[in-house]
Amino acid sequence: MSFLNPAFLGALALVGIPILIHLLRRKQIKRVQWAAMEFLRLSQERQKKRLRIEEVILLLLRCLMVACIVLAFTRPVLRSLGIPILSANARVYAIIVLDTSRSMGHQSNDGKTNFQRAQESAEVLLTKVLRPGDAVSLVLLSDKPEDSVSAPSFDLNLLRQKVRAMRPSSRGTDYTEGVRSVNRLLRESRIPAKEVYWISDDQSVAWESSKRDTAKATWQELGTIARVTWVSVGATPAERDNLAVEPLTQGTSLITPQLPARLEARITNYGTKSYNEMLVHLIVEGKKVGSARFSLPANGSGIARFLYRFPKSGTFTGRIELTSPESIDRLEADNSTPFAVTVRDRLKVLVLDPRPNPDPAHSESFYIVTAMAPSNEGESIAPTLRESSSFSGLNLRDYDAVVYVNALEIPVGDRKALQEYVKQGGGVLFFPGSDTSGQRLNTDLNAIGLLPATLNARRTLAEADSVTLNPGSITHPAILSLKDTSNLNIGIPRFQTYFVLEPQTDADPNAIQPLVRFSSGDPAFVERKVGQGKVILAASGAGTNWNQMPLKSSYVPFLYQVISYLGTGPASRRTLNQDDTLNLSLPVSDTGKPVKITLPDNSTTSESSVLDARGGTFSYKNTRQAGIYRIDVEGGKTHDAFAVSSPTSESNLTYADPATLAPQSGLAKANLTVANSPTQLQASVQRSRFGAELWRPLLWLLIPMMLLESLLAQRFGRRS
Length: 720
Hints:
Number of domains: 5
Distance between the termini: 42 Å
Number of helices: 13
Radius of gyration: 39 Å
Low-confidence stretches: 80-88
Helix content: 25-40%
Number of strands: 36
Mean pLDDT: 85
CATH superfamily of the largest domain: Class I glutamine amidotransferase (GATase) domain
Strand content: 25-35%
Strand order of the largest sheet: 17-16-18-19-26-25-24-21-22
CATH topology of the largest domain: Rossmann fold
CATH architecture of the largest domain: 3-Layer(aba) Sandwich
């Protein structure tokens, strides 16, 4: 305990006044012998002990009353455990952690957003709590926190202006990442008194990373360095229901003007209310081109599906949005999702067949080429057949994918070019054949790091023992739509001959994975990602010599899906996640020219493209904002766009109590204070800085003591 006015402690000597009066009343008086008094002596002896106890009670009560009055003037403060209490004139280093994640845009019943309440709390801190001479830093909290003001600033007015100009971002929330940023700043400061003001909406998903064992030491460090005041500005748990449109997925990996594209988005209901016949719109280039209605149960989700034929090749932007009045909730940022798609004129595929058979019935390349382009005109895929195992004299950059049929070897002169082609985003598909030597193909592909799986012994089965593809084993996104066998069953064709594939190992656990397995459990197709490209190795041939697949209706869609997946490389991807890198191929004539990027908030920046082995390329990494980005090469031909979507978890507004979860994460309870309003914030800071003042309780205690003293004095006096 400490005292804000310790000078008054000397007045505790006044406690001696009741004692002095008591002693004076008990001084010796002259004794006079009186015969009649003897009759009262025996009665007096019996009462003497009781009277003495009553006098002591009154004495103690009066001493306590005087002590309470004196102590109230000294303003005693009850110290907390943990970090020492500050003196009245101590200067502090304070870090204001301001949550700027997307959920902070949620509006409550009072008409204010979480972020507006956060700004009000920050304003209170900068005007009524922190004082001139205090050093302050400002950290913007998200899944990738930013130090808006990292060097301690003494200009509180400048900080107020910065806070007023802030707006919620489109990012997610990660409390552990925020603590790491705060700890770094705290360690750099030499000011002994440190405070952290954490202003957030208490979103449950923000605590996920803090539940890991590795995060505990981070939170513990925060508690040993600074006193933490948690300012809760989120809506009440009853107000946190939310509907969200999650990022678009392309049901069709290759989009061309020839065929309708399938566009899908998941709608999730994070609440206890169900919705019926909600209206969802597809917007392309600012025009409504499709609508869908569906219902959602409480805490459920559904898929909004659209079919749309893009009129020409190029890049198109749009969004999928909720438009029903009953479905537009108070977090507007996730009521729609942006997208951008690349519409290709055609996918160019090079087919290599070293030993073509003049009989189409036995020519594996015939089935491949025919499946890609049955009519040769108006098709999405344009195959080019080369009757050789070498592509010498060709430029692989002119092709989106390469297919080896009856693969024999990779000529030494082609290996380096093929390796670079794949690393830079190309796709290659290998089909073995009757002339394939598994050992040789293993050696050639392994030498350039392009071997997805080792080709072991070739297995030939009797017709009765033949195997089929197992649709249930499909997990790969390239053919995931074929897992549903209600309309098309890839498990019907039988395979009598195939190589037993043994998938390779890679440092990246996601680099190698099977597309589908046979009913025997052996892999039928295995993919390996190398650089920005992909290589897929088939276990069986592309024609009818080893299997029945080319004769079945599932052959064309299966091959179409695989070739589309291989051919739509990273340069074709236009809908990204936050912090993904955009890779754009440019005409050589546009290299070296400034590239202007228009961000979703309409601000612009300029960067340069490069000319390398891949040709003209442009990469952009600063994809922190969600929305549509426009790209224009100044004085060039390139005018493109791409979209960035927000993390889906940020739409889950479920409440989590920081007073419970912060200590569970490792922050000492003694160094944590939780406040829910600006007024409570001021009182909390006062208590955490100086402790809890006791002068009010002392004065309230004095009143019953005075009443008790009067009552006892009257009662004891009457009995005496």
